[in-house]
Amino acid sequence: MERKRNFQNLDLSNAFLFAAAMSDPITCSLVLELILDRTMGTVMVQSEKSILYSSDFRSARLDVYISENVRVDYDLEMENRITDKNNLPKRSRFYQAQMDVEALKPGEDFSSLKPSYVIFICTFDPFGQNLYRYTYENICLETGAPLGDGTRKIYLNTKGKNSGEVPEGLVSFLRYVENSTDECAQECGNSVIDVIHGRVKALKHSREWEAKFMTFEEWVKAEKQESCIFGEEKILKLVRVLLQDNRLEELSQISEDTALRERLCKEYKLSDIV
Predict the structure, then answer these.
(1) What phi and psi values does residue 80 have, to the nearest 5 degrees?
(2) What DSSP letter does each residue of the chain carry, written as one string?
(3) 97 near 121, Cβ under 8 Å?
(4) Which of 38, 96, 157, 238 has its CA 20 to 30 Å from the CA of residue 6?
């Protein structure tokens, strides 16, 4: 019963519930419209990237066809781990490169590359400027002119404070992300939020999705246990080689200095230590 209560009390900020909600094309389209402030075309969710097949259950990769029949790729991810804050820019760079590699078939010209957006919905301020939305694209540093490579990175912040500078619907959605209750949905007074909330409620009352959540929780628990055991073995190997090489000063630092630990791991070809 406790597991069921936990599942039913999740907010949309929970990575599992978010990915589950995004598996529905209508919900995807509505969320993207709120984020991008424009009408979307037909949304297609790639089944191989859905929550049933994703190894980390954190992201929903979307293929979206807009009205001009131009195919656009979106990578949409919920991020509630503030410890990953400094990694977000390079993670978005990696995701964008990954989308390009998957989209361009052998022999195709680079002009075939589709526009691509990487979007993080963060439950913390990723850049400390109190904005609800941070949008980045490649520009010329000398002139400020956009490069025109069709890529864009958007970071949303549920803790933003500039409500007068972004659409009201987006502010309501970001508030709902962290408080996905009937009361909050009603207070938002937004018909789009009502539809999204209906999807969230349906998921919470689905025994099938509750079972998936339970499986996911067990999987995460097992992964953490395995990772801890594996990591301890690798750390012991690093300690041994440092002792053998009489690198006592570095040995005293590896427990707190992650960068040093990573450098030593590469040096000794123990790259799996984190």
Answers:
(1) -120, 15
(2) -HHHHHHHT--TTSHHHHHHHHTSHHHHHHHHHHHHTS---EEEE-GGGSTTT-SSS-EEEEEEE-TTS-EEEEEEEEE--GGGGGGHHHHHHHHHHHHHHHHS-TT--GGGPPPEEEEEEESS-SSSS--SEEEE--B-TTT--B---SEEEEEEETT---GGGS-HHHHHHHHHHH--SHHHHHHHT-HHHHHHHHHHHHHHT-HHHHHHHHHHHHHHHHHHHHHHHHHHHHHHHHHHHHHHTT-HHHHTTTTT-HHHHHHHHHHTT-TT--
(3) no
(4) 157
Q: What is the pLDDT of residue 68?
A: 39
Q: What is the Cβ-side half-sphere exposure of residue 200, based on CA atoms within 13 angstroms?
A: 29
- Cα separation, 137 vs 116, in Å, equals 11
Q: How far apart are CA 259 and CA 274, in angstroms?
A: 9
Rg, C-alpha atoms of the chain: 22
Mean pLDDT of the chain: 82
Among 259, 238, 207, smallest CA distance to 8 is for 207
Report the distance separating Cα 178 and Cα 264, nearest Å.
40
